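Give me the fold.
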Amino acid sequence: MSCAGVQAWIGLGANLGDARAALRHALQRMAGLPGTRVLQVSSLYRSAPVGADGPDYLNAVASVQTTLPAPQLLQALQQIELEAGRQRPYLNAPRTLDLDVLLYGDERHGTPLLTVPHPRMAERAFVLLPLAELAPEKTTAAQLAAVSHQRIERVAHASEWLQDKP
């Protein structure tokens, strides 16, 4: 890894509490991680839960430049989730905050704790649409077509939702 770091793509989601505020706070915390800066943030999307019940999610994708190795980036993101009250009572449970490492440069990781590229990102409109907005080269028309049946809508451009006041 170069001293400039690696560009990573992070999926953000929440469907409990003040989801919009939780996502904004998570971005602030991510920007404060050692050797990390937020480069871009997508629009905010509302989507139906996939494979679960519960309220709609708010989702976005952010790109970051980081010198943290992928496992340490994941660990830092999980700490931000915990600080936001994240609990994991069962698979796909509603959550106050969900942060996923989607891509980490061109690297591939396959451990029990971290799989990159994210193993289910191509199955989820709430990942592919915001990712395509920021980096169209990271998605394909076939991937987007495969998730076109999933309910999702853009609710605010980044310049709008990042400036909202609580």
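The chain has a mean pLDDT of 92.
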